[in-house]
Amino acid sequence: MARNDTSYGVQNYSVPLSLYDTSERVLYAPLVNSPGFPSPLFPLSTSTYPVALFLTPSPDIAGSVFDGHPFEIKFAAKFTTTASLNVTLNLYQVTNAVLTSGITSTTYAGLVQASPSVSGLTKLVTGSATAANSTSGTITFSQQYTWDSTSKLLGINTTAVTYQKGVSISNTQSAATVASLAATDLNFIPTFTFSAAGVSVFNITEFVIDRI
After folding, report:
1. In the list 6, 59, 67, 205, which could disulfide-bond 211, CB 3.0-4.6 Å?
2. 69: CATH
3. Which residues partner with 133 through β-bridges?
4. For residue 191, is it within any domain?
5. Is residue 69 one of the residues assigned to a domain?
6. pLDDT at 28
7. Cα gap 75→36, rounded to integer Å
8. What number of H helices and E strands is found in the chain?
9. Pairwise CA distance, residues 33 & 31, whole Å
């Protein structure tokens, strides 16, 4: 049987490293104009008001295409470090109410603060600290999910798989299911924790949703 894959997301995106420190931080929108940014959904970040860059099904492939069908979140990045450090990758689901509350609001501020914590934010996967890296390398992540409009339940179907520089990295499943979610609540955000300063390049080659 032929596959009917659809794919939507961000590719070849250079993470604005000046917005990061050694705390856990969400993925941020860029500080300057770049291909696809700013957009109606993602204004540019500033040092005062960083903007969370999240992945959500495109309106033209949402709805019935995802209703009851498995889909996969895939993430890949290339990085360069100038010091020996660890990189930890986590994945979260966030409700639409948080994202539409406004960049400067208390609710949204809880999302973009260090170690984000806000009602409507659910950690799906907790990564592990990796072996120290002092040269260039790669990170890849994938996991399969389903959601349906009847139960409004986001179900996690497979074990999260993460590799760094070709080495398997262990993950902890933080949530088996997330209940009472509308299609607009299918928003996903990775976070990064750098154990020390020294990341000079962090380029996301792929952060996408694949309908499989």
Report:
1. 6
2. 2.60.120
3. 85
4. yes
5. yes
6. 98
7. 18
8. 2, 14
9. 7
Total count of domains within the chain:
1
Nearest to 87 by CA among 187, 161, 162: 162
What residues of the chain score a pLDDT lower than 70?
1-5, 59-63, 131-132
Q: Which two tokens stand for residue 61?
A: 């492939």
Identify whether 108 is part of a domain. no
pLDDT, tens digit, 9 for 90 and up, residues 71-101? 999 999 999 998 888 889 999 999 999 999 9
Residue-wise pLDDT tens digits, 160-171:
999 988 889 999
Structure tokens at 206: 């792929």
Q: Which domain holds residue 186?
A: 6-26+54-99+120-211
| 48 in any annotated domain | no
**Long-range own/partner contacts, residues 59-67 (CB < 8 A, 24 or more apart):** 61/6, 61/8, 61/211, 62/183, 62/186, 63/183, 65/6, 65/211, 66/147, 66/183, 66/186, 66/211, 67/147, 67/148, 67/149, 67/183
- Output the pTM of the full model: 0.94
